Fold these 4 entries.
Entry 1:
Amino acid sequence: MEKNMLEAIKETAAFIKTQVNELPKIGIILGTGLGDLVNHMEVIKEIDYKEIINFPVSTVEGHSGKLIFGNLGGKYIMAMQGRFHYYEGYGMKQVTFPVRVMKELGVETLFVSNAAGGMNKEFSVGDVMIITDHINLFPENPLRGKNYNELGDRFPAMTEPYSHRLIKIADEIGAEKSLRLMHGVYVGTTGPTFETPAEYEYFRIIGGDAVGMSTVPEVIVAKHAGMEVFGVSVITDLGGKDITEVPSHEEVQKAAITAQPVMTTLIKELLARI
Ligand code: HPA
């Protein structure tokens, strides 16, 4: 990013403030195939990423690229429909820029969702996994480089990347509504290749339950900014040394759609209770 990052954040936030009357305290990043949540929102304002100063433009199929302001589960929220992935060629500062802008707008709680491959042998395709922790296997940390003390600490703790409070509420919702909710550790990698059988196995052995190509950079920046985070993965394919099915982008999208009723119930209820 050429401009000073602080100036860019303020400039983008100032633009967004001209577009909406009210600023949300909750932000949601909708991952692959999970855009359907928007259909349950009472939409107040949509802003195309193209119109937003300093925003990169999303390029991947299935990511439409809009900021959506509106109500869901009785809460006023902002949702990112489409995110920026490292594998698209964006730098880490670009991938995480929208989270910085959310914070500048007053967002205190961030929900993140993604599609992920499952390595945990208990998982099935279409399962929803509450992310309890992550392992950053991206070759770069989004906080590398100059630290802006205004944004957060030089060496932020990552002891509780995913809020225990929110996980507990999610589990209560799961129990009440008989939702099959798994728990697990998300491994973040660059992609765009899916994993080899040995790589899925390796990620399982180091403590991972699911692997995907997003989320970790955004969560690191959200924690740096002092936000409370809740993350969910939809298990769209399974990997490991005994598994021969070949994952594809189409399969991932299809499986994500299967999980939508559980995702929608969970997120709406969680919003209603926080
Ligand atoms: N690996 C990495 N990213 C993914 C996968 C996977 O198996 N499935 C969905 N996103």
Note: The chain has a mean pLDDT of 92.
Entry 2:
Amino acid sequence: MRERFLNHNVMINKIIANLLPYFPPRFVWLFSKKYIAGKTIDDAIKVSKELNAQGILTTVDLLGEFITNLNQANANKLEYLSIINRLEAEEIKGNYSLKPSFFGLLIDEEICYSHIRDIVALAAKSNNFVRIDMEDSSCVDKEIKLFRRLFSEFPGHVGLVIQAYLKRTHQDIMSMLDLQNHPSVINYRLCKGIYIEPKAIALKKHDEINKNYLDLLKTLFEHGIYVGIATHDKQLVNAAFKLIDELNMQPHQYEFQMLYGVTPELREAIVRKNHRMRVYVPFGKDWFGYSTRRLKENPNMATHIIKSLFVRG
Ligand code: FDA
């Protein structure tokens, strides 16, 4: 009976997610505003300050990905540079996240590298840090290459995301160990992975992904790699607490990370235990595209739209 109810739910969510791009943006915003800081840099600053006041660090992301011409790449670079200047001037306690496809990764790798290099150089000048988000599997090799190049020039100022659903990730960690050369510690964000990938290269079952997530987390800890434990999955958070205790990991060796607006109660519980927490704060005028794409990738989120229509606040 419960299974039939869940199947219905999944089907309805999929239908809503597919229809959403045709809905008026004002309607989609009702849902999106919970997960997006706003449309402008001022909105991102306001949200970052609120989170900082709760003892939470941020990583600010300008929304957008997969551009189609290189003029956009240059404009996006300039926008990121001005974001860094603004956030540093406002003394926000947080760093920056970006998606390489937003700078032309799939059009011209060299131009993409030079744009991201400018961004990392500016962040490094402020003794800050840029996280390279991991995109779909067509980008993984290219993003690893990009990270390697940037890390060798700006160790301590650039990090990468790795995805537990990809079967290759353990091998990727091993092949990048040569970068781990004290004091330049590698810094990864470990997440499950959000894109729809073929079965041949990606784990599909929740339990398999969670098991791999914990195996990878253990491997990272054992190699002294700094980890951003990015998940809202309570089961994984509890297992991570256990691993931190067992391996006697120190607070400067890891942090927890969550997306803005997702599972705030679990987030607060982690902060109350005095673990470092960072929240991913997306903002920008591309909020509509971002929301509808995320919904198609994860139709279960549609439930949250319906809730946001009926539940006040
Ligand atoms: P899971 O999907 O099992 O969710 C656990 C529980 O959390 C759910 O049952 C639900 O209650 C809640 N939940 C999760 N997502 C929710 C949502 N959107 N709305 C409401 N509730 C939600 N992926 C990627 O491929 N590349 C990347 O660079 C990043 N970057 C990134 C940064 C940060 C800080 C986070 C937290 C996540 C990412 N991700 C990502 C996304 C990640 O891969 C993954 O898809 C999501 O975090 C969901 O996976 P969970 O680990 O939360 O578990």
Note: The pocket of dihydroflavine-adenine dinucleotide is lined by residues 133-134, 161, 163, 189, 191-195, 230-233, 257-259, 262-263, 280, 301, 304 (CB under 6 Å).
Entry 3:
Amino acid sequence: MLAMTGKHATALQETSDAVVELRSISKTYRDLAAVDNVSISVGRGELLCLLGPSGCGKTTTLRIVAGFVEPTSGTVSINNMDMTFQPPHRRDTGMVFQSYALFPHMTVAANIAFGMENLKWARAERDERVREMLRLVELPHLADRLPSQLSGGQQQRIALARALAIRPAVLLLDEPFSNLDAQLRVRMREELREVIRGVEVTTLFVTHDQEEALTMSDRIVVMNAGKIEQIGTPGDIYEKPETSFVAKFIGQCTVLEGIVGADGAFTAKAGLRLPGNWKPGPGCAVIRPEQIKMPSDRPAGVTYKARVVQSHYYGEATRVVIDVNGEQLMMQERFPFGLNPKSGDVLNVTLDTSEIRIIRKNPQS
Ligand code: ATP
């Protein structure tokens, strides 16, 4: 049983190894359930990402952990202390906001020192920690600049240094790359991951970018309309989606509705048959573009005749929508120079059906 959630932090009677523990958290605004019965445990040193489309409740969940939003019901604990009603500065968290929220009139050094001043760290210890943080984010020469004199990537790193300076138990990041251009975003996420790994801080991170989530996280929580759809490692989420929402949200894929017959083969609504050994019953087949190959590469699988519906050249590969027995599938292939298929072309394609995942309509059936 949990201790009573009064207005003061209390040790929980039921302890857990998790650093952050959300239990049955809900947040309602009038008749809207922004967060709906969400339970998440974040382990020590883990980097956990909340991923989902705009409006699914991920920022509200993060702000409930930070203490900027009070949940309608449920509890938040950090290091086994009930924090549900504690103000943000009592929670031992460091937060990096989408807009970085650096204090514009303070130098970089003063921004980084801010939290330590509030916590009444001694001057010498504070100054040493500021230097250490600037070395960590590789910007030791910018201590005296104002935020307006920094690039977007530099501001992002200073915001991270400020959040980490007080050695928080939990680092909270709200879409920290959204203000950066595409190239810088890729570089910064690699750097950020290195820094977070280096200091081994437990991290909760919000994004709507599936590539960001797959490359950075230890585990991903996929949210949809306030609820959790699936929690798992990036590999689990991509290779073993449990719902068609997760399959469609993570990476490119085709989801076909159909039924597995007594012989274990899947037949899609329009008639496309995928031989296999699945359990009979209704379900959805998830087919990733990379599972469809050209027979010339001698892949294992079943070969089908396909008509090209659309073809888009991306440089490193061409993404092609093909019609196979009345179902439209997406494939991705690097064709020899000058041989990219055009709409109306007919191709032979091979599908390794053993790699295809069937999502059961009703897992109990
Ligand atoms: P985004 O990626 O667009 O930031 P999100 O997944 O972070 O979206 P939230 O900001 O958590 O979504 O919002 C979840 C839902 O709650 C949305 O429908 C939003 O409009 C609503 N919401 C959030 N804050 C409030 C508020 N203060 N008052 C009323 N509704 C709110």
Note: Residues 1-7 have pLDDT under 50 and may be disordered.
Entry 4:
Amino acid sequence: MKHCLDELAVFGGPVAFSQPIHVGRPNIGNRQRFLERMQDLLDRRWLSNDGPLVQEFEHRIAEQLQVKHCVAMVNGTVALQIAIRATGMSGEILVPSFTFIATVHALQWQGIVPVFCDIDPATHTLDVSRLESRITQATQGIIGVHLWGRACDVVGIETVAKKFNLPVIYDAAHAFGCTTGGKKIGGFGQAEVLSFHATKFINSFEGGAIVTNDDSVAQRSREMRNFGFAGYDNVTELGTNGKMNEACAAMGLTSLESFDEFVAVNRRNYKHYVEKLNSIPEISVITYDEREHNNFQYVVLEVSDNLPLSRDDLVQLLFAENVLARKYFYPGCHRMEPYKTSIPDASRYLSETETVCRRVLSVPTGTATSLDDIEQICQLLTFCIQHADAIGKRLRDHAAR
Ligand code: T4K
């Protein structure tokens, strides 16, 4: 608890946390179960290439999401690249700029031109009312991103897609276990793509998956992840190595067994942040629709522009205290290379993206973050906001020296 400005670490006071408190600290499930699975896979001497644990992982995910097919992948980025090819996307594809860079790189990596569309500032996902105005003769598809696990306007997107006969893929890297309109995310569009990276609430160290109800997309994805092999000695098209290995599947399966516990902890943490911060008008915590299933994987704050302290000042203050809050997804993909150079005028039509990028702040959560940690983080934020004028002035004096 800080009582005066001199006690802030940024001004030489004691650091609030002796160890860094990260956003994205992995959730670890039952160690014993994981180690048993590792022993089994070593005994079996089947380490990769569509092994039994990968098949079981795929089966569990398809069952949980009520989709016909799940094709496990080495990571979410390669899963996106393969989904884009397997659905026949080319030319120009509409995509939000307010997403993790992997969504857009997955297109560019294959020579596809991303065309950025602005977001709705209330949902942080594609603004469907602006989608049509970005469509041209060259448009070949749409990628929506269910950011923070909050679904895009799937109905609106599908309506536009139908009108222009465009395939749709959803980047559901954040949305495992979430619903929209009571329906599980996973079965929308031609395919949806999941990530099981270490920082995701269900993790397989590194991992991802394509989930789809389309038999042909599933079949092509399966072959493409295995160099294009359609059987021994028979390659039918361009493929890559996108296979998940057995150790990752062992972690994924173990992690899945703790699904309910991880969601409960995330939910508890999220509620605690809301309770502690809701009296501060300059900070709002993004909301989750209580009628839906949410995984609460991200706790995202929006810092008001009407504050003498900017979001970046708060990040500086928190980092000094060993709270490694993140500015996901600042500055927007359009302000990063190669898009900054190839689409230099993008900010002209991405005003909401730019505003949201300036405000967002992801704070630590997950099973490695205790309620006590959250209490202290909220106290720090509250202290900083209460003394925003004086802290802002002193930060700028320091910077000017
Ligand atoms: N689409 C979207 C919308 C995504 O958000 C992502 C990934 C993808 C697609 C692609 O999926 P993958 O190909 O990754 O499966 C992290 C993750 O690496 C990335 O998976 C995630 N999104 C993104 C939002 O966050 P960075 O560059 O911020 O990660 P990094 O290394 O800074 O780690 C984040 C924090 O987690 C650090 O403070 C340290 C902590 N950490 C991390 C790891 C790996 C740990 O404590 N232990 C660990 O093992 O991207």
Note: The two ends are 28 Å apart (CA to CA).
